[in-house]
Amino acid sequence: MTYNKDFDADAVLRSMEGMSKRHPEGTAEDEALRVCAAALLFVRDDLHKLVEFREFFRKITTPAVEGIKVAHTFASREEADAWLASGTATDGQLVRVAGQGFTVIDRGPKGLKLVRVPLPEELPPHKQGK
Fold first, then answer.
1. Alpha helices in 1-130 (DSSP H)
2. Is residue 66 within 8 Å of residue 2, measured between CB atoms?
3. CA end-to-end span of the chain, whole Å?
4. How far apart are CA 25 and CA 115, in angstroms?
5. What is the pLDDT of residue 108?
6. Cα(70)–Cα(94) distance, rounded to whole angstroms?
7. Which among 106, 104, 130 has a CA at the least distance from the CA of 117?
8. pTM for the predicted model, two decimal places
9. β-strands 100-106, 72-74: how paired?
10. Per-residue pLDDT of the chain (130 residues; tens, 9 = 90+)
11. How far apart are CA 25 and CA 23, in angstroms?
């Protein structure tokens, strides 16, 4: 899920007010909502603070997989090795070879090498604990 980093602070506060009506005063939920609302009010009225908070929010809510960019996709290891030999690959590039992830490693005088690094879609789903 992608979150809106340009959220409307006032709309969020109105939503929090609606949620707070479902929790009796003094409960842990009531306190949590009040603290969150106060924090949002603290940054809402200072444009610089709000911009900083939105960037912070983007960083912590954007799934890490969105930041992973595959530079090239190859049908076979032979195609990937030919690309490495062509001299256009650079250290750190992420590539997909026959559905598997690899990263380019510069070994100095020994040249470039592909090292296996699983892509996000290759990993098992994250299980959230309670």
1. 9-20, 28-44, 47-61, 77-86
2. yes
3. 20
4. 56
5. 87
6. 5
7. 104
8. 0.49
9. unpaired
10. 567 778 899 999 999 999 999 999 999 999 999 999 999 999 998 888 998 888 888 776 766 556 678 999 999 999 999 999 998 999 989 999 999 999 999 988 989 999 998 887 787 765 544 4
11. 6
> Which residues, in sequence order, are bridge partners of residue 103?
94, 115
User: In this structure, what token pair is assigned to residue 79?
Assistant: 């195609």
Q: Write down the residue that tokens 């007010």 correspond to.
A: 17
Place of tokens 């939503």: 15
Tokens of 125: 């789903």
Full DSSP string of 80-104 = HHHHHHHT---TT-EEEETTEEEEE
